[in-house]
Specification:
Rossmann fold
Length: 573
Amino acid sequence: MLTELRIRNFAIIESLTLPLAPGFNVLTGETGAGKSIIVGALGLLLGERASADLIRTGAERAVVEGVFDVADKAEVARMLDERGIELEEGRVVLRREVAVAGRTRAWINDTTTTAAALAEIGRALVNLHGQHEAQTLLDEESQRGILDAFGAATEQATKVAAAHRALAEITRDIETLATRRADAERRADYLRHVVREIDEARLREGEEVTLEEEARRLENAEELRSSAAGMVAALEGSDEAVLHALAHVQRSLAHVLKIDHSIGHLQELFDSAFYALEELSRELSEYEESIDLDPARLTEVQSRRDLLFRLTKKYGPTIGDALRIAREAREELSLVDGAGFDLTALETRREAARARLAEDAKRLTSLRTAAAERLSRAVDEVLPELGMPEGRFTVALRPRDPVQSTGAEDVEYRVALNVGHDARPLAKVASGGELSRVMLALKTILARLDRVPTLVFDEVDAGIGGRVGLQVGDTLRGVAQHHQVFAITHLPQIAARAHHHIVVTKGAREGVTAADVSVVDAEARVSEIARMLGGDAESDISRAHARELLGKGARGPRGARRARGEGQSPRAP
C-alpha cells in the first residue's frame, strides 16, 4: 500500500508530506485548496506526462516521491528483481523529478530508471480512477477487458488473439504465393523464352574477356608473326645477330679471367644473360609458329562476341547478370508447377488454424457467457446501494462472424436506470455521475480480483449527494476491506465513512500561495465535516449533524495535528 506521498515545489505546493493508512482514506478541503494538485502529483509519479509548467514559481525542479509497503506483494518483488532493483525491507520508493528545462528523471529505490519502467511498477501498485477513467467504460475494449478479468477469461482471450494472428499469417502466405503464381503464369511464355535463349547460348562467366583477347590476336595475326620473326632474326638470324656477337664477348671474357681471377662473377652474369637470350629466342620462335592466320576462326569469334553483346545488353550488363536472370526465371517458372502443391499444403494448414481459432473462440464465448450473467447479477445487487434502486445492468454479447482477434462476439454494457425502460448502451443513457457509480459498482465487484493494492478515486462523488453519498461512502469502505482506498471528495457523507481523514488547506507563505495538509480526528474532524455540510462549522446544529454522520467512525479527543508533525498515522479500525 501507499504509506506516504511526498511533494516538493509542485504547482502551489512548496513541501508537503501526505500520510496514508490502511483502509479507507479521504482527502477533503475547500475548492481550490489543492486537492486536484495532489492527485496530479500522484499521476506524475505513475507515469503521466511531465511539464516544466508544473514547477512551483521560483523553484528549479519539482519532485514527487511515493513510499509503498509491498512486503506481501511477491509479484512486485519479482518485477523489481527482473530490473536488477533490490527490495529494501519490503519497501519501494518511487521518485520522479521535473527540472525547469523540461528534463525529467526517475528512480526506484534510488536506482535510476526510465519513466516507462516507473509507470509499469506504479501501475502494479496504484490504480488511479478519476472521472476520465469512468469514461473508459464507454470503450468496447475496456468493457471486454473487465468482463474477461471477472470471468477468468483473460488467458483464453490471449489464446484467441494468438490463434487469429496465426490464421492471418497463413492467409497472407497463401495470398502472396497465389499472387506470385498468377504473375508467373502471365509471364510464363516470356520466362521460358528467357531461359531458352540464355541456356542455348551456354554462357560462361568471364567468357567475354577471353573472346576479346582471342579476337585481338586473330585480327592482328600477320603483324604479330612479322614482329616475332624480326625479333628472332635480331637474336640469331645472322653473324651480326646478338647471340653471335656474344660469342666474341665470351672469348674476350675467358682471356681476361686467365689473367685476373677476381672477376669470376662476371662469367656468371654473362652465362645468365646468354642463356636468357637463348630462351627468349626459342619462345619467340614458338610464339611465331602458334599464331594462326585463320579467317574462319576470326569470323566465329566475332559472331560469338556479337551474341554475347546482344545478351548482355538485354539481360546484363555482365554475363553473370544474364545467368542470374535465367536462374530467377527458372525459379519463377517453378511456381507455375510447384505452387499448386505448396498452396495445397498451406490450405491444409489454414483449415487447421481456422478450426483451432473456432475451438478457442468457442471456449472464450462459453467463459464470457457465464461471466456476463454473473457480472450482470452482481452489479444489479450493488446499484441500489449506490442510489440507483431501479437500475439494471446487462452485459450483452453480440455474435460476430467471422471470428475476430477479440473473439466471436462484441461485448456491450447496457443499463436501464428507470422503471419501464429497456436496457440501452451505457454511453447513451448514463450521466457523468451515473457513469461514475456504475464504474464504482464494477470496481467493488472486481476488488477481490484486482491485485493492485491501492485504489485512488478522484471526484467519485460527481453528480450525487444526500443519501446516495452515504451509500457511495459505505461502498468505498467495503472496497477498503480488500484494498487501500484513497478518495478525494467534496461530500461529507463520503468523508464521514473514512477510516483516515486528511484535510488540505491553502494559505500564503512569504507572499506566495502554498498548500498544506493535516490529519484530522475527533473534534477537528467534526469541524471539517460540519464545514462540508455547508453551514456554520462552529454551530451546535452543524456539529451535531457532523457527529451523526461520523457515527462510530468518530475518533477520540486528540484533535487536529500536522501530518508531518507527530508520530504514526492512525490505522484503520
